[in-house]
Amino acid sequence: MASGTSMAEFEELLNESFEIDTPSEGTVVKGKVIAIEAGQAIIDVGYKMEGRVDLKEFAQPGEQPNVNVGDDVEVFLRNVENARGEAVISREMAKREEAWDRLEKAYEREERVEGAIFGRVKGGFTVDLGGAVAFLPGSQVDVRPVRDAGPLMGLKQPFQILKMDRRRGNIVVSRRAILEESRAEQRAEVIGNLYEGQVVEGVVKNITEYGAFVDLGGVDGLLHVTDMAWRRVNHPSEILSIGETIKVQVIKINKETHRISLGMKQLQEDPWDTVERKFPIGSVHQGRVTNITDYGAFVELEPGIEGLVHVSEMSWTKKNVHPGKIVSTSQEVEVMVLEIDSQKRRVSLGLKQTQRNPWEVFAEQFPEGSAVEGEVKNITEFGLFVGLPGDIDGMVHLSDITWDGRGEDAIQQFRKGDRVKAKVIEVDVEKERISLSIKALENDPYAETLGGVKRGDVITVSVSKIEDGGIEVEYQGMKSFIRRSDLSRDRSEQRPERFQPGDKVDVRVVSVETKARKLGLSIKAREIAEEKEAVEQYGSSDSGASLGDILGAALRGER
């Protein structure tokens, strides 16, 4: 009976032992630290199983292991028994499983999680999120690029989970999102306390080509280069340096974009308020060339007041020349105020007006009729351009080169660089023109001849050439042409061939063209005039006397 009872009890105990489930591999189990030796913690996980865990698995990044004998801990059971009969366990894997559960809930709720950067990898950093390792891209470390992440290493701080995949074991976090959110709140608070026109102090945070960013206590404002000073500022670094504390005025606030425009010059007196009083039109001032363009040069009259010398107002004589060939940057020049537009903040200046008009000076030094000498600067189809005192040019027209021959032929004798003498014929200061004459230096060889001849005179000429249309004749060296119709009163006698070169012929002067140096001659006009005179002296042909009788009487009377 006793034997039967003991067997029954044994079976019952055996069944109970079978009913107790042995922990499954790959799960988290509870255990107790029973000893620490050789850098390892020996942990009793129950079920008559013990395992070992390296002490470093109990340490947070950058900290010492925190574990003592008697501590209750959770570990991950990887294998129930190894070759030494011990359970293969891991504290790190247990923490990871626990962390993933916690992080998944935080990700779903879009909550922040705490972690510490502990390593650097390609493209970013590794972050310990309390057992799970996440990747922090370099672009998500801060709102601005971080050159040295050393101060951030091992520091516990909040992160935002951007992406996670438990199956692949990937977690991507962002520190920048936290900072931007905090920054946005701070910006909104600071901007809410600012108003346009307010004067505040700020610290120069960054300097660019176009301006400077000023920290107003959690929010940045842009101080554009054109709002730094009334004068021209080529680069903000001329008047500002990073870290400098400055006073600025809030010019504009954009509540939607949180952009703030600042100004420094608005805190100074506007020099344009007194520009008309200081620089009246027609006054001459000393200035400094600040900028040169294709259309002119800007000259600073005083800090904040710049005027433009247009290219057309730079020189009396240098036309179509780039302003850079007349003045240079930083050069001190004397200018005249030509026009002021205070509303548009423009001042028109003149450089050439500070010097006398060279055409006026020339007209005084060389009045019309005086002789002048110069160098041939250019030769054109219509005349010569001669360089004159005062760096100006005068022109000798083709018709003013010589008395003899054609001007087109005479101009071929000249070359650039030749020195020539000429007489001043006309000076037009307004049109900046000077007319010269080379032939006027000599008397017109035919002037006396023309001066002694008047219309209606009868003169004797010599036939020099016979042509189909008439005859060429010469009078004291001056040549004229008598057309066929003017050779005789009678049409039958209007034949050029009845004349021979060398014949002497009496002709009547019908016109005197002094400027063209020409005489209009006619045999026909002489004959008609003689007939008229004879009729008036000896009677009308209507009385019965023939023309031959009258002319005969006239001829006899002459004898």
Automatic annotation (TrEMBL):
Q: Which residues form a coiled coil?
A: none
SUPFAM superfamilies per the UniProt record, alphabetical = Nucleic acid-binding proteins (SSF50249)
Where the record annotates domain S1 motif, the positions are 26-92, 110-176, 197-265, 282-352, 369-439, 456-524
InterPro entries from the xrefs?
A: NA-bd_OB-fold, Ribos_protein_bS1-like, Ribosomal_bS1, Ribosomal_protein_S1-like, S1_domain
Keyword annotations for this protein, in alphabetical order, are: Repeat, Ribonucleoprotein, Ribosomal protein, RNA-binding
Q: Its domain of life? A: Bacteria
Q: Which CDD domains match?
A: S1_RPS1_repeat_ec2_hs2 (cd04465), S1_RPS1_repeat_ec3 (cd05688)
Q: List the molecular function annotations (GO) for this entry.
A: mRNA binding; structural constituent of ribosome
Do the record's keywords include Calcium?
no
Tell me which GO cellular component terms the UniProt record holds.
cytosolic small ribosomal subunit
Which GO annotations describe the biological process of this protein? translation
Q: Name one Pfam family in it.
A: S1
Q: What does this protein do?
A: Binds mRNA; thus facilitating recognition of the initiation point. It is needed to translate mRNA with a short Shine-Dalgarno (SD) purine-rich sequence.
Q: Which family does it belong to?
A: Belongs to the bacterial ribosomal protein bS1 family.
The name this protein carries in UniProt is 30S ribosomal protein S1
